Each structure stands twice: as structure tokens, then as C-alpha cells.
What does this fold into?
Amino acid sequence: MTTLPFFDPEHADLAARLDAFARQSIEPLAAAAEREPPVAAGQRFVDVAAAEGILPIFTGDGASGPALRPLCLAREAIAACSAFADSVYAVQGLGTFPIVRFGDAGLRARYVDPAARGRAVAAFALTEPGAGSDAAAIRTTARRDGGGYVLDGTKTVISNAGLATFYVVFARTSAEAGSKGLSAFVVDADAAGFRVERQIELLAPHPIGELRFEACRIPAAQRLGAEGEGLKVALSTLDVFRSSVGAAACGMARRALDEAVRHASTRRQFGSALADFQATKLALADMATDLDAARLLVYRAAWVKDGGAARVTRESSMAKLFATEAAQRIIDAAVQIHGGVGVTRGAAVERLYREIRALRIYEGTSEIQRLVIADQVLRSAGGADSPGRSPGSEQP
It folds into this structure.
């Protein structure tokens, strides 16, 4: 799996370990997770990853964020067996990285170290009913009051809602400063004035919900970075994790291609295996080419970041855009090759068909990724002062 030019020798051993973990520990839980309450299923996935020592790949070691190539290898392997598990672990990383980068030693010890051992679960609370791609539209407020802040507002479609023991929350500390008026805070799940308002049911099950803050008081020490640096916190986190979304898409696409090859090789129609028909071969060729191209883009971004690049905005946006769109095409083709079996509840490709759709939306829609990439192209061509900068492309 690691026969790409972006890996060091130790990555092959890690990839083998992750594939074995996914097959032996994640795959047996995947079907049941679709039927159980999402929070209970999510906790089970956290427990098995903690027992295997997998979570530090997502959280880092408390002193630094995760290395991106191992993170991408983990997401690719795990998403091939369960997008549910992959998303729980990925949000563990999203919710701890801001603390690693912008928190002090006390916050890192209190939140990141337990999360790496599975004794705490993280969430990343950015999206609101009226603020998705446009972070500047955030209306949740954080009002300074004595030695702390008082938060009021609502967040929605927040992954790990109800499962998380702490949330990194983005709120407005200045009404006049637009996107520069946001700040980031760590809020404990048991904080007074905070509650999970409701769980949200998705196309593919996942612990996700709406959060409510009503006079929620937190200490000033739980602010991450300086006041007004909230957008910087958010964008620097997404800049790291965005390419790993592409890795998850590659894992799902790889599983779909494997299932399609297996079905085409054994299913017979008109006296021949499906794999003997030219139309099937053409489809498989397109699927394999899309997958290889997606993996090249994903692991290029990861390699550049691991090599010390301060930002991989262009590379990570290209990786997420192409990999998620390609995975949608690959999985759709796999369902088509399966015929009626492909839309039967319980079939692997049917589950993948439901799971892949969200990846083209979260952590920046495909449309936003195109705008970010265009911004980067214009910058490199000397067009940074061009009008009409894209939403989501402002740099921290």
C-alpha cells in the first residue's frame, strides 16, 4: 500500500499494523455501529483504539501535533472498514491540535494527554446554524467577565457531540472586528450553562449534534491563543487535517474497488464473469486510475508538511478536493457493478455510498476548496491583490 515516493521505511510497518488493526478490531464493530446509539458506538471505537495504542497517531504526543503521513495512513486504513470510527478518531485530532499548538503546558496535560490514552474525547465546535463556510458569520459570543468569559450561542452539526468530554469552541469576542473578532476556548462537557441540545441523524450514523451555551462561564486560562486569534486557530488546524480527509476518502475508495473486483470476478452474466466484459474493465480502469491519482495528491501534501512546510494550503486543498470527488465516482461505479446487490442494506458498497457523501462537505466543501486553490494559484502568479478573495481562504 505504501509503494509511493513519499514514505520512509518505517511507514511500511506502520501501514501493516494499521491495516491489521482495522481488519481485526474495527471491521467486526462496523455493522453493529449502524444500529446502536451513536454515542455508545463511538465510545466503543475509542476504547478499542486506546487499547491498541492508536490514538496518539491522531493527537500527537502533547508536545507536538501528529505527523501527517502516519495520520493519513491511519485514516486510509480505518475508513476502509468504518467511516464512523474514522470520523471519531479524526475529531479526536481536530479537537486536540489547537490545544497542542496554542495552549499552555497545563492545558496540554489536562486535555491532550488523556485524549491520547482514550480517557478523554475531543470535539471541534466551529459551525453554527448561520455560519458554515463563512466563519466570519459566527454569532456565538464570549463576553469577558472578571477572570473569565461567559459564552452564549448555538453550534450545530458538531461531530462527537455527546461523546466528547471537552470541546474547542469558537466564539466572538469583538462585534466589530469581523473574522478577526473570533477567539477559541476549551469548554468541558460538564461546564455549567453548556448542554448538547439534540443529536442529529445523518445519512450515515455518527455522534453529531447541536450544542447550546447559555451563560456558560469558563476561566480565561481556557482561551487558546490571544483574543482575536480564533480564525488563526481554526485555519491552522484545518490546514493540517484537510489532506487527511482525502486519505479517508482513499480508504473508502480502495475498499469499494476491492469489493468491485471481487464481485466482478465471481458474478456471472450471460455465461461469462462480469470482469470479462469490456464495459466492466473500462470502469475498473477508471476507478484504479482515480484512486492512484488521489493517493499521490494526499501523500504529497502529507510529505510536504512532514518535511517542515509552515503551510500546505494549496496541497491539502487539492488533496481533499480531488480525493473526495474521485472517491464518490469510484464508489458510485462499484455500486453500479454490483447491480441490485449494491443498493441492498448491509452490502459494503451500500454503506460506503452513504458514508462518502459527507466528505465532500465537511472541513470545507469542494466548492470552497476550488476557491482556496484558485487563491493560491493567483498568489503564486503575483495576483494576491486581486479582488474577490474566496471565503475560507484567509490565511492565519
The chain has three domains: 9-116, 122-228, 232-380. Strands lie at 122-125, 141-145, 148-159, 166-172, 182-188, 194-199, 208-219, 223-224, 268-269, 272-273. Residues 384-396 have pLDDT under 50 and may be disordered. The domain at 9-116 is CATH 1.10.540.10 (Butyryl-Coa Dehydrogenase, subunit A; domain 1).
